[in-house]
Amino acid sequence: MIGTWAAVTSSGLLAGPLLGGLLVTLGGWRLVFLVNPPIALLSLVMLLGVPNVVPPKIRPLDRPGVVLSIVALGCLTLGLIDGGTNGWIRPVPVVSIVLAALALLALVRVERRAEHPVLPPALLARAQVRLDILAATSATLVFYGMLYMLTLWYQRERGFSALDTGLAFVPMTLPMCVLPMVTGRLIATFGARRLIIFGLTCDVFAGILLIGVGLHSSILWIVVAEVALVLASTTAIPAATADMSVAAPKEYAASAQGALNASRQAGAALGVAVLGPLTSLRTAGVILAALALVAVTVSIAVRRQPQP
Predict the structure, then answer these.
(1) For residue 172, what are the contacts with CB-CB under 8 A and spacing of at least 6?
(2) What is the full DSSP assignment across 141-179?
């Protein structure tokens, strides 16, 4: 089920760059905003036949926790983008990152005292849960960060058109429509942990490949790195999702999946913030490999710990 979900949602990554490149080529960047309305309308029509099931008990919303989470992620993203684009020795990135750190510290304190925390400390106390969140965040950060950066690099450094750039991503996006369903069977055979470590190791390999890419390097070199990136995301993310359903206590099942999905979205935002301002694939490769290596090391260390 998780593999099918991941494959269907990933089909947008195949269609998006191609359709976006075609629309930009035909009439400019404003046309890309025509993509969402028909999809939203179709979704609304399909929802008309879906029953609205309301649980008998609904926990109160942890408003302070939600607000502090937004402030922390928003300030961190702003600081990273502004610092990477305009320089770090300036008030905006410094103040933004300091505010993000303060909001994060306040969030930890608030969540420990909240009656119904949006992110229960008892859930994060489990090493397996922390590993799943780390794996999903790292894999998403790397994938979406490189997707954004390569989009700019193909056009600015190699002179590709918007449509050519979309076609250049096919080796990276097409497998995402199929591989997650294979991953579901691999999880059943080898276990989620091994798939998580395999996926993060593929990210390390992709980073090492990109370190060797120069302005005149063969596109095939980058295609191999794209394949490594897609292998990473289509194994680590579904495996972490499946593992979370087992790792989280029953009473925190919904909060656990919500936390995992939130961490994936945060990873996508931070990936663009960290890798988006870069102009050198070699620098991106170093950062990518370092982040993934840390995640692999932590994953192996947690894997060796006895689980409750």
Answers:
(1) 147, 226, 227, 229, 230
(2) HHHHHHHHHHHHHHHHTS---HHHHHHHTHHHHGGGGTH
Q: What is the pLDDT of residues 212-259, one digit of tens each?
A: 877 777 888 888 998 999 899 888 888 888 888 888 888 888 888 888
Amino acid at 170: V
The rounded Cα 280 to chain-centroid distance in angstroms is 21
Q: What is the pLDDT of residue 3?
A: 66
- Give the CA angle between residues 4, 6, 8 to the nearest 5°: 70
Q: How far is CA 6 from the centre of its chain?
A: 13
Which residues fall within 8 angstroms of residue 202, CB to CB, at 6 or more apart? 228, 229, 231, 232, 235
Alpha carbon distance 24, 43 (integer Å): 25
How many angstroms separate the CA atoms of 245 and 267, rounded?
20
Alpha helices in the chain (DSSP H): 2-27, 36-47, 63-86, 91-113, 121-124, 127-156, 162-168, 170-173, 179-190, 192-211, 219-247, 253-275, 281-303
CB atoms within 10 A of CB 54: 7
Taking each helix axis from N to C end, the angle separating 127-156 and 192-211, rounded to the nearest 10 degrees, works out to 30
* 72 DSSP assignment: H
Over residues 262-295, the pLDDT tens digits come to 988 999 999 999 998 888 888 899 999 999 999 8
Tell the residue number behind the tokens 């199929």, with chain if given. 178
| Sequence-distant (≥ 6) Cβ neighbours of residue 109 within 8 angstroms | none
pTM score > 0.85 for this model? no
Name residue, tokens 């029509």. 45
What is the spatial distance between Cα 154 and Cα 159, in angstroms, rounded to a whole number?
6
